[in-house]
């Protein structure tokens, strides 16, 4: 942590942040009680913006309640800008000032949690701070009590949300949600309740703008909603929190052109607008390492901190990633489930899914404009126990009704199921648990698809343009959902059968 002794940026937060929405009802702050007195003895100097962030985060209303008691402090700040360091130093100071303080720091990935623990270990093991830590094992790197422990009973615990860490705690004073671009609202319910009895009860949400995949999966909800609420010019209710975002003032096409040319002089000028640590604690080489190992889109988000609102119209699955999971199967058992879609021109698409425990393979199995031929094909392929999902309307619904009358296990693919199925599709691609037949029609449907968010929650797959035909993708998602929600039988997916190919 030698970098903490380098020149601090003296610029105030309001001068360097692109967006800084701070509580309007600030009457006083606990910053001068909990943090400021500790900094000289810690041998650490914060940037002025970092102090301002804590000033606002610990601000109190006239009645003594915390101004950020509802929405917390949200930091949308690029990598290497000092957000993690600034939060860490403040937490250590609070733990030193306030005996018995409990801080829970969660990341999405366990690797990030481990890396963050090592960073804070570097702070508390400084000679100025080490005597104030627990005499034995001040830094615990195992799952039991993983974190840093102070002599006065305070502690900062670390863990990964993906492993279930963060739930089950009681009497927590401060919570930090790192990698907040990968945080769903539902995950907050139990964790935030743990701060109800604390006289602090402060939450931090910190991360970089979400990737298209995270938006498509809907895992950015908590982060994105806080940004939307803070930036909404017609707020119906006060924003009871602080929102801070660093990015170039003109974060648009100009930056998109420059990220591909790190040697362009304006690249570094714009970077200075997005990263207050550049030129102070962070040099050019640190930024070059990031840029040289990232795609231009990642540079936009993670180096410049730019939120790209156009990602909502991006393909549901990135076509390069989709292509990675194409697999030619020589033989397949009896299908686990089928999905039937029909487009506006009356063309039918039937997709098949084969499930293997928590993984699956999908293929476009049939394409025809004939209802009779489609019925014969499905009747020949499916057993009376094969789950079949079909559209709720149009020609596919008519086929589904006829199959049900004939005794087949056909049912409507509802909107609720569609939102669940879409999230399932993305989760399985993200987890490398899905392969597909690589048929050109299905690949084209993936390229021509986009997501459309629903006010009621979740999202639907929509065509990117009026001429796009995404029927193969819809039917594949229907089949996948039916297969993965089907109750497994003792004999697995049933007896072996012929491989299905595109008609």
Report on this model:
The structure is a single chain. This protein has helices spanning 13-16, 31-34, 39-42, 48-57, 83-97, 110-124, 188-193, 212-217, 221-231, 253-258, 265-274, 284-292, 296-302, 319-324, 371-381, 394-405, 415-430, 440-447, 471-485; strands at 19-21, 28-29, 59-60, 72-76, 102-107, 139-140, 147-149, 155-160, 174-177, 202-207, 241-245, 337-342, 348-356, 359-368, 388-390, 410-412, 434-436, 449-453, 459-463. Strand 15 (388-390), helix 16 (394-405) and strand 16 (410-412) form a beta-alpha-beta unit. Helix 17 (415-430) packs across helix 19 (471-485). It contains 19 helices and 19 strands. A nine-stranded mixed beta sheet has the order 1-11-4-10-9-5-8-7-6, with helices on both faces. The chain is elongated. It is of the alpha/beta class and 503 residues long. The chain starts with 12 loop residues before the first helix and ends in an 18-residue tail after the last helix. Residues 1-5 and 490-503 have low confidence and may be disordered.
Fold topology:
Layout lengths: L12 H4 L2 E3 L6 E2 L1 H4 L4 H4 L5 H10 L1 E2 L11 E5 L6 H15 L4 E6 L2 H15 L14 E2 L6 E3 L5 E6 L13 E4 L10 H6 L8 E6 L4 H6 L3 H11 L9 E5 L7 H6 L6 H10 L9 H9 L3 H7 L16 H6 L12 E6 L5 E9 L2 E10 L2 H11 L6 E3 L3 H12 L4 E3 L2 H16 L3 E3 L3 H8 L1 E5 L5 E5 L7 H15 L18
Parallel strand pairs: 4-10, 4-11, 5-8, 5-9, 9-10, 12-15, 14-17, 15-16
Antiparallel strand pairs: 1-11, 2-3, 6-7, 7-8, 12-13, 13-14, 18-19
Helix pairs in contact: 5-6, 15-16, 17-19, 18-19
